[in-house]
Predict the structure.
Amino acid sequence: MEQVDRVAIEELCQSMCGVVTGDLSVRLKTESTDLTVQKLTLLTNFMLETAQRGVERSHAYAGALDEVQRIAGLSAWQLLLPHEEVVPIGRMRHLPDVSAASMYGTKWFVDRVAIGYRQAVAELFQGNGGALEWPEENGNSWFRTEVAALRDEEDISGYLVITQDISDRRRANERIRYLADHDALTGLANRRRLNELIEVSLEISRRQGNKFAIHIIDVDRFKSVNDLLGHAVGDRLLIDLANCLKQEARANDLIARIGGDEFVVLQANVDDVGDACALAGRLLGAVRNRLAETESHTLAGSISIGIALAPDHGATAELLLSHADMALYQVKSSGRNDFAVFNADINDTQLNRRRMEADLRGACERGEMAVHYQPLFEISSDRIVGFEALVRWRRSGDEVSPAVFIPIAEETGSIIEIGTFVLREVCREAAGWAKKLRVAVNISAIQIQDGGLPDLVAAAIAESGLEPERLELEVTESLLLSDVHAATNVLARIKALGVKISIDDFGTGYSSLATLRMFPFDKIKLDRSFVSDLGRLGEAEAIVMAVLGLGRALNVSVVAEGVETEEQATILRTAGCSLLQGYLIGRPAPITKFGEVIGDDSGACRLLVSR
């Protein structure tokens, strides 16, 4: 029998001592010529190298597992029966570190759970396990634990426990649920939550016979705050208003913000309309005092309130809100800073408004709209030098005041159709006048925002053959303030066509002097409110003199609107005003009434104003 080199084998055994201590980097060496020893050395080194790569992969996997657990907020461990030994899987984040010493049982785990959830968590370690979300004892974090039974054939040999930190997800879900029912700016209930609670209140009302009131609250002239002071100031005003409403309402009343500057108070347990009116009165006074302390009080210092009583004024949330909104509109139309309760008269008014909105659509196509002209008198030449075009609507044979239908047309967008008709009609008629008199057309903010006005003006001029310099567009200061950049851009494109631009109702805005710096206007139209006070109020004459001086300094013509008396005309002539317009000169009428003026230099209206 062949002898084995026992000395060489002994050397191999000694060199493997390092492996026993866990150093897999050891490699065996031998100088033996024994073939068996050489084979044993090679196989052992191969085994060591394979084991080392396996350990390295295991460390890499453990590192990856640890990173996955960190990102996902996971911890995992096993509870091995029958001794309930705890065996960690990776790092046990958010839980006690059990790697340093052996740990047994589940008490250490259950003790981390809030008291009200401990029994349910303990029951996860029975039977086949289960899953549960639970908060920490301090309530700062939430976890989800899933326990799965480990089986050795038919018997349960232990449990696999996976716990995930779900605090961020739970907070996000709570935020989503909160925003679903609340206004993000003020923290009040939103429209969705309001509708739900109105329906609940209606159901209670049907069962118990009690009443409640809906108050829709709107900030007067809130748009001016955003336009002139910025949205940050507007937001602060809304927050102040929300806080004021919360202070004035009772604990069982609901306050909601349903959009923009519109708030709703659901007043519970109302005996009669007097209770609703009493709350509305308190809200008006409290809000007025609160807004007086804000930086925007000069622009928006009051509110208007519309009230509907349930179930008297409606059996659904939609109907109650609609009727309260009708009452609010009634307040807005009659001067603001007040409240109104819905009634049959308001309903009739709103129905008439809805019918008017419908009738306005297509009124131009039906031939119901017409253009009337009011003459413009030049003092220096003692004659009519132009006209202002004014739209008139004959509805079902009756004349409708522009003060009634123009605001409705602007709110509904019908002003685009009406404005297009007026501009084309004015250009067509003026192009046929024998005398080359100027003609002015009023422009709505909606037409500016629509964006197509420059193209419309160019087309109307081209189609009619009217000289561009004879056409003048009148814009109000509020139109410019709503969006200065957009408005001045549109007006610049129109002015480039050769059309004149004038500013109407000058002096009634919040920053009239600043407005003149926005755009190179060709004319200033002094608001009629100042003219009407001439001869009665010294302040009015001072204002008129100031505006006329401003016009001379800027080399811009000034037109005095609303001239109705000889005294007013005399004061204006003495002050140096160059152009007059008003009933003293002539009332608006179809152009056929001014046939002599537009076709003969000896115009019929030439000497209406005495020297």
